[in-house]
Amino acid sequence: xxxxxxxxxxxxxxxxxxxxxxxxxxxxxxxxxxxxxxxxxxxxxxxxxxxxxxxxxxxxxxxxxxxxxxxxxxxxxxxxxxxxxxxxxxxxxxxxxxxxxxxxxxxxxxxxxxxxxxxxxxxxxxxxxxxxxxxxxxxxxxxxxxxxxxxxxxxxxxxxxxxxxxxxxxxxxxxxxxxxxxxxxxxxxxxxxxxxxxxxxxxxxxxxxxxxxxxxxxxxxxxxxxxxxx
Length: 230
Hints:
Low-confidence stretches: none
Order of helices and strands: HHHHEEH
C-alpha cells in the first residue's frame, strides 16, 4: 500500500487530534498499527505518552480522591476514657531466696545438685548392629598384649637325630634324603665342600663332567611315539 498525500494528511490530523495508532489504522484501512507508528516517526510527528500509563495515572488519581472523600465523611473519634487508677495490692507471698552454695573446699562442703535433669542417652546403631560411641563414651586404648614366646616344635621320632629343614645353614649339606611328605624325610647335614652347597660325595652326583660331543649317545626315544631327537 502506498502512502498518498491524502492518507498522510489524515494521519497527521488524527495523530495531532489524540487518536491512537489502532484508531488511525482502522480509519485508513489496509495498514497495521505498527505501520502507522513507523510512518509517524518518519514524518517527525511529536511523540505522545503511552495510553496505558495515562490510564494508570487517571486510576491512581481517582483512587486517591475517593480515599480523601471517605476520610472526610468519617466523624471525629472521641478521646478514649482514661482507665481508673488501681492501687497495687501488696505482695503477701515472697519467693524464698536461694541459699548460696558452700565452697567445695570448706568444712561444710556439700555436693551441688545438677541443675539439668538427666536426659535419655541416645545411642546410634551402625550397620550390622554396631553401636557407635559418643564423645563421653570414649575409653583409653587397650595396651597391647606382650609378645608371645615362640617355642620350637618337637621333631618326630623318625628324624630326631637327623637334619631337618630348620637345621639347614651354609655350613651343612643340603642334599635331600628321601621324598617330601615321608615321615623320615631329611637332609644330608654333613660338612659342605667349600664353595658348594653339598658335601664332596653329593657334589660328585650333582656336578658331572660332560663327554666330548662325538662320544655322546643320543637319549632313548620317548614312549608312545614321542619326537625323535637327532
